[in-house]
Design brief:
The protein is α/β, with parallel strands linked by helices. The chain has helices at residues 12-23, 36-46, 62-71, 89-97, 110-127; strands at 3-8, 28-33, 50-54, 80-84, 102-105. The longest helix is centred in the last third of the chain and has 18 residues, at 110-127. The mean pLDDT is 88.
């Protein structure tokens, strides 16, 4: 079964790295957004199985977008992995308090990221 993953990042190089890491895996269909507001719109329309979202973005940052997604009954069950170059304790705390299911610091190992995605998808599948 193919699972939809929404990649949310304003940095093209990160989107390309994620696309390469995940795009070759037939288990995943990739959707893209460049900021938090677009991510919310796509999440409501497409109902992805998981969202990978950068913290620091223009228009709406990932923390605020995650908080909105997690408080909306239509999107609250979608697992969210926050991606950030900021390894500060405050960012981790803010992301988790916004409802993020996992928090991964850039740079990251593609295999570690895929393992995290699979773990969350399997967890959401058994919960739902």
């Amino acid at each position: 079964m193919t699972r939809k993953i929404l990649l949310v990042d304003d940095e093209q190089v990160i989107v390309e790295v994620l696309s390469i890491a995940l795009g070759g895996d037939s288990r995943f269909e990739l959707l893209f957004a460049g900021d938090g507001q677009i991510a919310i719109d796509i999440a409501n329309r497409e109902q992805p199985d998981l969202i990978l979202m950068d913290v620091d973005m223009p228009v709406m940052n990932g923390i605020d977008a995650c908080r909105i997604l997690k408080t909306d009954p239509a999107t609250s069950a979608i697992p969210v992995i926050m991606l950030t170059a900021m390894a500060q304790q405050r960012d981790l705390k803010d992301g988790l308090s916004a409802g993020a299911d996992d928090f991964i610091t850039k740079p990251f190992s593609p295999s570690f990221l895929i393992d995290s995605i699979i773990r969350l998808l399997e967890g959401s599948q058994t919960a739902g």
